[in-house]
Amino acid sequence: MKTSLHLFRRTKELEQKIDSFFDKISEAAVIYRLAVRVYLKEGLNEDFQERLDRVNALESDADKLRREIEQQLYSNTLIPDSRGDVLGLIETADQLLSQFEGSLWAFTIEQPDIPEEFRDGYKKLTGMVVKAVDELGLGARAFFRSPHDVPAYNHKVMLYEKEADIISTNLKKAIFASDLELARKLHLREFVEQIDGVADMAEDVADRLAIYAIKRLV
Amino acid sequence: MDPLVLLFLSSGLFLGWALGANDAANVFGTAVGTKMVKWRTAAIICSIFVILGAVISGAGTSGTLGKLGAITALPGAFMTAMSAAVAVFMMTKSGLPVSTSQAIVGAIIGWNFFSGSPTDINTLTKILITWILCPVLAAAIAIFLFKVLKFFSRRVKLHMVMADAYTRVALLFAGAFGAYALGANNIANVVGVFIPANPLPVLQLGPYLVSSTQQLFMLGGLAIALGVFTYSRGVMMTVGGNLGRLSPTAAFIAVTAHSIVLFIFASRGLEAWLAGNGLPTIPLVPVSSSQAVVGAIVGISILQGATGIRWSVLGRIVAGWIATPFVAGLLSFIGLFFLQNVFNLVVI
């Protein structure tokens, strides 16, 4: 009986850690959007820095959680059937946080000078990629509780990723059609691709998630 | 107690050992193979519940075997059990799925032929029908359990890791029930043929009197437990590969369906309840634990839309049904002849 209680306490802890890990990703996505908005509106300032610090902290926390989850899954031989998939999911989802962090660092270091006429495009693009990440977060949570709901969330991830592609293509077209210097055009394109890269990564994670979910349903 | 009695009982105890070595894997194989349950935990639970099942509920199926052929001479019972054990060994060596239940029935019929006793056709028919019914019923119960579990899991939406914890506990309970049902249903194969010979003196334990039959059940249960502890580990580790990859949930369903079938065919309580309510009773017959598990897995596969049922495997099971009792019967007849005419022992 004691062993059973111990098993359930351990399991509850692990469940909370997994939920908390995906909370960090959703939280980081929201802060990322706010940080880009601040940059587009006011440039590099304290507000932006504070948000970058929060994303950094979330990334470290998520890393710590990932390691604890890995350790707990293997040392206690929990979910032996799916632990490989769970670790695969967590490791790829963790890369999203690195992407958020890397993108914000790039804004800090390179300080791109974004002309007024393109700012709305960047804002829309950021909004769209964050929506893709939000849906991915919901899909990942569904994977643990009701895998048959995963395809519905994945479908939305794909949809937002495609929308983000359209916005980024139009934005790049507009940048290269402008009178800016080529070096600046290339610099602006780099940031479009960096933001769009978040949605691409979300799509990659969603693809993996789709397979893991099918495996759980079989 | 005459030491010869132990020698004569050895063939039954060997059968018990083989049963524990092989059939414990039907109960705990997937749970241990998928690392959901530790082998040591499985072996302890399995042994305790096999013995409990044998001692508490073993009488029903033993009675049926007694009706098929009441072997009153201990050397005769020895050779009958020995023939069954050798038949099981030979069948296993030739790669045919084998059941101790079928072997012992064949061996008893061999004794009937040798002794000139008539075989009760009514009892034999009951046994044969039960053998076919066993995997079919296991499949039907597995399909029902699978649907019920799917219905609830869609609504309850447990977190994967919590569902895993519940599955572990469920596998332990299913395994304990499975071991109890295995002991209750299959103890007749191990010591059933020795019961009519009444070989052990009544034992006085404080205020309790332990009859020869109860002692036989206990000894048989211990032999099964010994088989579990000494030889089942390797079988459990490989059982997943033989039966195809099963998820822990599917394993729980397969073990539960198997255990229900074995219990139904062993429970005197259920028989009395059905009779008391004017319902047709279920014959108490030792059935094959392996075939019950295979039946349950086939049931789950059908539900999951498996298109390729391996007919060759099914064909081998049917071949085993025919070959095992035939070989055991033949060995029994020949062995009894030798025992009577070469060793001058009373076998009838």
Structure at a glance:
The complex is a heterodimer of chains A (218) and B (348). Chain A has helices at residues 2-42, 46-75, 83-110, 116-145, 150-177, 182-217.
Task: Explain what you see.
The complex is a heterodimer of chains A (218) and B (348). Chain A is mostly helical. Helix content of chain A is 89%, strand content 0%. The two termini of chain A are 32 Å apart. In chain A, 39% of the residues are buried. In chain B, 56% of the residues are buried. Chain B contains twelve helices and two strands, in the order αααααααββααααα. The two termini of chain B are 22 Å apart. Chain B has a two-stranded antiparallel sheet. Chain B has one domain (3-341). The model of chain B has no long low-confidence stretch (mean pLDDT 89). Classes of the chains: A mainly alpha (218), B mainly alpha (348).
Which keywords apply here?
heterodimer, A: 218 residues, mainly alpha, Methane Monooxygenase Hydroxylase, Chain G, domain 1, 89% helix, 0% strand, B: 348 residues, two-stranded antiparallel ribbon, 77% helix, 2% strand
Walk me through the topology.
The complex is a heterodimer of chains A (218) and B (348).
Chain A: H1 2-42, H2 46-75, H3 83-110, H4 116-145, H5 150-177, H6 182-217
Chain B: H1 3-33, H2 39-57, H3 59-68, H4 74-93, H5 100-115, H6 121-156, H7 160-191, E1 203-205, E2 208-210, H8 212-243, H9 248-264, H10 268-276, H11 289-303, H12 311-341
Antiparallel strand pairs in B: 1-2
Helix pairs in contact in B: 1-2, 1-4, 1-7, 1-8, 1-9, 2-7, 2-8, 3-7, 4-5, 4-12, 5-7, 5-12, 6-9, 6-11, 7-8, 7-9, 9-11
The dominant shape of chain B is globular
The largest sheet of chain B has its strands arranged as 1-2
Work out the helicity level of chain A.
Answer: over 70%
* Element-by-element helix/strand order of chain B: HHHHHHHEEHHHHH
The CATH architecture category of chain A equals Up-down Bundle
User: Structural class per helix/strand content of chain A?
Assistant: mainly alpha
The number of distinct structural domains of chain B comes to 1
As a whole number of angstroms, the C-alpha radius of gyration of chain B is 20 Å
